[in-house]
Specification:
Number of helices: 10
Shape: globular
Distance between the termini: 35 Å
Number of strands: 4
Largest sheet: 2 strands, antiparallel
Order of helices and strands: HEEHHHEHHHHEHH
Oligomer: single chain
Radius of gyration: 23 Å
Structural class: mainly alpha
């Protein structure tokens, strides 16, 4: 038989199961970390605050505005990478692979598929304008006005937008969407996923509000965020959304020249393989206009079709369970 002291010790809870902090508006005692709202807001504040300050300082120190744009994205990507490592280590206490950075053969395949879908999809947008007589090919292999030879200018542009795709997807999908879904864990799974997708897409649209001339145009960027979010949820990987995002920016600016629809608003003309001249109504051929919006929907359908082929079903493999404790 056990003594009374032994029974008392057995009845005592294991101290490792007790969170030292009580639950508050800021702290989730069950999970032992900040609540989802503050994780999301904190991540955005760190990346946009420190990233913007660093990008501005670095950009001003370079003689070329085009190089300054690349340097700015290096800063943003660096801040986002450090943030993700710190979040994984000190708040979520889980491996980086759990955010969708499991770098294996499947990850590489998803990356390649995203590039293919993006480049072909935005090529379809230009082809539509050409078919209806709303655009014509003005030049091929245009070096633009950035002051670099074509090959160098293209390399700088591709590097810049690869970094944009990386850090924006890490932040808006890897951090914001995932934490939003976990924060909505009290809802049924599908509603939590829908809520996380909606929040991350809206915030993504707000980030790009400077590129939208109207609320209707802003909806284009929200839709773009939704497509990238679906790519993340349906693969549980950042490979497809990163490559889709990078392919979008590279295709618009350096492959199909869709930027030419708003060329007068840009500080310089980027180098591009195809330089079209748009003559159709601006309301139709604008970057955030109905033609590109239609092809963005086509890209979304392609993402869903690939996910179905990849997973063998329409079930989303996205893991929402918090595993840090």
């Amino acid at each position: 038989m056990r003594s009374s002291n032994e029974r008392a010790r057995t009845a005592e809870p294991d101290s490792t199961d007790i969170d030292p902090l009580p639950p508050t508006l800021f702290w989730n005692a069950t999970e032992g970390r900040l609540r989802a709202l503050w994780r999301v807001l904190g991540a955005l504040a760190v990346v946009l605050g420190l990233g913007s300050a660093g990008a501005l300082a670095v950009g001003r120190s370079l003689p070329s505005q085009y190089l300054g744009s690349l340097a700015a994205q290096v800063v943003y990507a660096g801040v986002a990478a450090v943030l993700l490592v710190a979040l994984a280590r000190y708040i979520d206490r889980r491996p980086l692979a759990a955010y969708g950075l499991r770098l294996d053969r499947t990850w590489g395949r998803d990356l390649a598929v995203g590039v293919a879908i993006g480049v072909v999809g935005w090529g379809g947008a230009l082809a539509t304008s050409l078919l209806f007589g709303w655009a014509s090919v003005e030049r091929l292999l245009s070096a633009g006005t950035v002051g670099f030879p074509l090959a160098v200018g293209l390399a700088i542009g591709v590097a810049q937008y690869a970094l944009v795709g990386f850090w924006e997807e890490v932040v808006f999908r890897g951090v914001v969407l995932r934490n939003a879904v976990e924060g909505l864990g009290w809802l049924p799974r599908r509603r939590a996923l829908a809520g996380g997708l909606g929040l991350s897409s809206l915030l993504f649209g707000v980030l790009h509000a400077d590129q939208a001339g109207s609320p209707l145009a802003l909806s284009f960027w929200v839709l773009a965020g939704l497509v990238m979010g679906l790519a993340y949820v349906w693969t549980d990987s950042l490979a497809l959304p990163i490559s889709l995002h990078a392919a979008f920016d590279v295709s618009v600016n350096h492959v199909w020249g869709l930027f030419a629809a708003r060329a007068g608003e840009l500080p310089f003309e980027p180098p591009t393989l195809v330089r079209p001249a748009f003559t159709g109504p601006e309301s139709l051929v604008a970057v955030a206009g109905p033609i590109n919006t239609g092809w963005l929907l086509v890209i979304g359908v392609a993402v869903v079709a690939f996910a179905r082929l990849r997973n063998g079903s329409f079930a989303a493999p996205f893991r929402t369970e918090y595993e840090g404790r």
